[in-house]
Amino acid sequence: MNDKEPTLRDNVPTTSRPLLGMTILVVEDSRYASEAMRLMCVRSGARIRRADCLGSARRHLQVYRPTVMIVDLGLPDGSGLDLIAEMGRANPRVDVLLATSGDAALREAALDAGAVGFLEKPVQKLAAFQNAILTQVPEDRRPAGPRPVDPDDVEPDAVAYRDDMAAMADRLEQGADPPTVHYVTQFLRGVARAARDTVLLDAVDALRADQRSGRNTGGGVARVTGLLRDRAARRVSL
Predict the structure, then answer these.
(1) Which of 7, 58, 84, 149 has the fewest CB atoms within 10 Å, i.e. the most exposed one?
(2) DSSP assigned state of 50
(3) pLDDT value of position 238
(4) Where in the chain is the domain with CATH 3.40.50.2300?
């Protein structure tokens, strides 16, 4: 581990930058969701590192220990629950280990695996993001006094959304077997909700329902793939 990485005590947090001194490792495969996290880290004074899969996260952790980890539960090379369980057993532990998912039903599984908190996607409110971290650190590590509350949602660049759409369309076109459909739909559900893309969200939910009930998913896959290609090509403004 790199002992020179910032710790919670390296800098004194302020009310406007309450996460100052923290390094946050975000393990997230969506560029759109990752960009939202980046913006919230920057506005909060935290340094961010990013990994898009379990393998990348483990490589990061061989080099340094973050003060905070936020782990998406649905990753392209496995479940984030496995990484959370590993970090829960690690010594020394990460100060704050959080799980995130668009499926609120996974909250208990995440906490059982070792997470100390759960962020339900979409994570768009700066105050909620900050509170999820600050409530898990001792009071003397929190900024003194009331913090200003930003009521607006964090809005990532639409380019990141288009990149996500193109990546998931490629994935479906390479083969829509059940594990792929499961992964793509859980990925898209969180991203579409964050972008308020109700047309895509409805199509994804219908495809998820078909898969869960054992119905043929061919038509649903074709519809979702078409919507993804449309969004990637149209350079839609969200």
Answers:
(1) 149
(2) E
(3) 45
(4) 23-141
